[in-house]
Amino acid sequence: MEIHIIQGDITQIECDAIVNAANNSLLGGGGVDGAIHRQAGKELLEECRTLHGCATGDAKVTKGYRLSARYVIHTVGPVYRDGQHDEAKLLKSCYKKCLEKAEAYQCHHIAFPSISTGAYRYPTSQAAQIAMETIEQFEAHYVQRVDIVCFDDYTYRTYCQLLKKNNKSA
Ligand code: ADP
């Protein structure tokens, strides 16, 4: 499986499924969630209403509507408090559940945002480590390419450094 770190807007990525860092209601929010809903159109919110929310660490799938991605995999990352409230376990579970959904929907190419590192305040370097580790350890059959789409410079640089480090030790 190839992992690519990309700087940009996840709503513009052409792939089989993009991941949304949503909240428990799945009824829209700010950050990447707001951007995905704006781009997908109101049908996305209508489908989300039928899902009755999503637990932290879990993932649910909808169609992509006006996005170029066929599916949106909605996951809910943990709000970071002090690192003593299962944050790492829950964040790992987000990545794993999303990859499992991607497999179930036979996706070859998927894109993740940096889950929990915006409004949910997970320290970026720790979150990036969990993201990369979980993706690298996943045994995929359909998924051949994973893009991690970083919106801002700092997030992009943090993920790139980790990718370099991991390649060196391999
Ligand atoms: P969370 O509530 O899980 O922290 P946020 O949307 O607040 O989710 O932030 C998660 C990450 O997504 C942040 O790094 C933020 O800069 C980034 N982000 C915001 N908009 C986009 C977008 N359009 N594409 C990709 N990443 C985005």
Automatic annotation (TrEMBL):
Superkingdom to which the source organism belongs: Bacteria
CDD domains found in the cross-reference section: Macro_OAADPr_deacetylase
Listed PROSITE patterns: MACRO
Domain Macro as annotated: residue spans: 1-167
Pfam families, alphabetized: Macro
Matches recorded under NCBIfam families: PRK00431.1-6
Protein name, entry field: O-acetyl-ADP-ribose deacetylase
